[in-house]
Amino acid sequence: MSITLSDQDQLTLRTAAWGAVSLMSAAGAAGSAHKAATNGSIALTSATGLVGHVLAKAPKGLTGKTVAALADQVLPALTASTTLLKQHAPDEAENFRRTVTVAIDAAVQSQKGEPSPSMTEMARQITEALGAS
Question: C-alpha distances in angstroms, 104 versus 7, 22, 38, 89, 128?
């Protein structure tokens, strides 16, 4: 059985996952924001299944003048993504959650030493949003 997501659903998943990496990069700006973004992006593009096909492209127009503005887009999209995948492709909901979690971990590990308090808090908010559905 093949699952097809609408263009809007795919945009929601991309906004959620790629936005989570952007939030982690912003939270890790005191360390190496570039490494956090690179490692998180590699994790997303390494995904498999339906989620891997959807996340192969980054979304266009994912912007925010502040981290708060970006979080206002991304955190609800994370919850919406897990909800829509649970409805349309339950196995892929877990795949999406694991993929984003791996991307967060990859971004955190890009920092030297312990993650900063801001990265730890951002990871907590992202994880919370993933589980809110």
Answer: 25, 10, 11, 23, 13
Tens of pLDDT, residue by residue over 34-86, are 788 888 999 999 999 999 999 999 888 787 789 999 999 999 999 999 999 99
Report d(CA 82, CA 102) in Å as an integer. Answer: 16
Q: At what angle do helices 117-130 and 67-88 cross, to 10 degrees?
A: 30
Residues 6+ apart with CB under 8 A from 42: 106
pTM for this entry: 0.91
Query: DSSP labels for the chain?
Result: ------HHHHHHHHHHHHHHHHHHHHHTTTS-HHHHHHHHHHHHHT--HHHHHHHTSPPTT---SSHHHHHHHHHHHHHHHHHHHHHH-HHHHHHHHHHHHHHHHHHHHTSSSSPPHHHHHHHHHHHHHHT--
Q: Could you tell me the two tokens for 83?
A: 């909800």
